[in-house]
Design goal:
The chain is mainly alpha-helical and 98 residues long. 69% of the residues lie in helices and 4% in strands. It contains two helices and two strands.
Length: 98
């Protein structure tokens, strides 16, 4: 067996499912989501800290401050777009007739 695929002839190939319970899948998804949210939060905090340090005259590198602010903005915008896509997918699933 290679990569969860049982080898054989083309007619009798079978794909085996990994043994993951729904609870484990939920926990894994929740942990991934928490890590992504923490990443967005850390980017925002870093941007705020550098902006405050620039305003206080503690650093002079405006380019670094702007780059950090842009990274934080892109990270936040990406997470908002992912949220919208997830909500759209959920709504689409709820509209399906069984």
């Amino acid at each position: 067996m290679i990569n969860n695929i049982t080898l054989g002839t083309m007619a009798d190939q079978q794909i085996t499912k990994p043994a993951v319970s729904p609870g484990q899948a939920q926990e894994s998804f929740a942990n991934t989501l928490k890590a992504a949210i923490n990443n967005v939060n850390n980017s925002q905090i870093a941007s705020d800290n550098k902006t405050e340090a620039l305003a206080n005259g503690q650093i002079d590198d405006l380019h670094d401050v702007m780059i950090t602010a842009q990274k934080a903005s892109i990270t936040l915008e990406t997470s908002v777009q992912m949220q919208r896509k997830a909500i759209d997918a959920y709504n689409e699933i709820m509209r399906m007739q069984v």
